[in-house]
Write a structure and sequence with these properties.
The complex is a heterodimer. The model of chain A has no long low-confidence stretch (mean pLDDT 92). In chain A, the strands form two sheets. In chain A, strands 2, 4, 5, 6, 9, 10 and 11 form a seven-stranded mixed β-sheet that branches. A four-stranded antiparallel β-sheet of chain A has the order 1-3-8-7, with no helix packed on it. In chain A, strand 4 and strand 5 form a beta hairpin. By secondary structure, chain A is mostly beta strands. Chain A is built from no helices and eleven strands. Helix content of chain B is 0%, strand content 59%. The model of chain B has no long low-confidence stretch (mean pLDDT 89). In chain B, strands 2, 4, 5, 9, 10 and 11 form a six-stranded mixed β-sheet that branches. Chain B has a five-stranded antiparallel β-sheet with strand order 1-3-8-7-6, with no helix packed on it. Chain B is built from no helices and eleven strands. Chain B is an all-beta fold. Chain B is globular and about 40 Å long. Classes of the chains: A mainly beta, B mainly beta. The interface between A and B is medium-sized, with 24 and 26 residues.
């Protein structure tokens, strides 16, 4: 069974640009979670999508947004990039009604903002 | 606050035991978790413990929970070089009607020969 996949692996942008990160969940999973792992800050919860709707949001500004498509894949968009947005962005998926520990993580997209 | 705190770095010799500590904030957390992150890989759930338990053992891993002090620890017996990774503790936290995982900053475990 294929795991959670993310693309691209690496992304380099400059300040003010927009970044789009993609995530494909495990087949059969309907929930997608996004986390930001910045140096020294651990993982910060960004967004949770389920059945195409945003269910929960972390303490991030509105320029962090996303969506979930009918096939349950998801995009994370970061507008007006700032240097401190440089981080590893992790996506996780889980099945409907799953407990929090039943999230399966992808390998991440490393975003570098110059 | 939502701070889950861990020490940043731990170095142990191969064959010794490793103890990684974590303090959390939400006394109502139902579960507490330990994840492992190896270079270039996503997070892997190692183990978790119900908040009404004091201890859980799973092969080389022992989790201890002190609810009074909100302290969680992970002991790895007979640490191997393959255990070198970043270890994150996490707690489940309710926000409104939903729950989310709140992670610590991670502890980098270095295993030396």
């Amino acid at each position: 069974e294929a795991g959670v996949t993310q693309s691209p692996t690496h992304l380099i942008k400059t300040r003010g640009q927009q970044a789009t990160l993609r995530c494909s969940p495990i087949s059969g999973h309907t929930s997608v979670y996004w986390y930001q792992q910045a140096l020294g800050l651990g993982l910060q919860f960004l967004l949770w999508y389920d059945e195409g709707e945003e269910r929960n949001r972390g303490n991030f500004p509105p320029r962090f947004s996303g969506r979930q498509f009918p096939n349950y894949s998801s995009e994370l968009n970061v507008n007006a990039l700032e240097l401190e947005d440089s981080a590893l962005y992790l996506c996780a998926s889980s099945a409907l009604g799953a407990a929090l520990h039943e999230q399966f993580f992808g390998p991440g997209t490393r975003l570098t903002v110059l | 606050g939502e701070d889950v705190e861990q020490s940043l770095f731990l170095s142990v010799r191969e064959g010794d035991s490793s103890v990684i500590n974590c303090t959390y904030t939400d006394s109502s957390s139902t579960y507490l978790y330990w994840y492992k992150q190896e270079p270039g890989a996503g997070l892997q759930l190692l183990t978790y413990i119900f908040s009404n338990m004091d201890m859980k053992q799973d092969q080389r891993l022992t989790v201890l929970l002190n609810k009074k002090d909100k302290h969680l620890s992970l002991r790895i017996a007979d640490t191997q070089t393959g255990d070198s990774a970043i270890y994150f503790c996490a707690e489940s936290m309710k926000t409104g009607t939903a729950s989310k995982l709140t992670f610590g900053t991670g502890t980098r475990l270095q295993v030396t020969l």
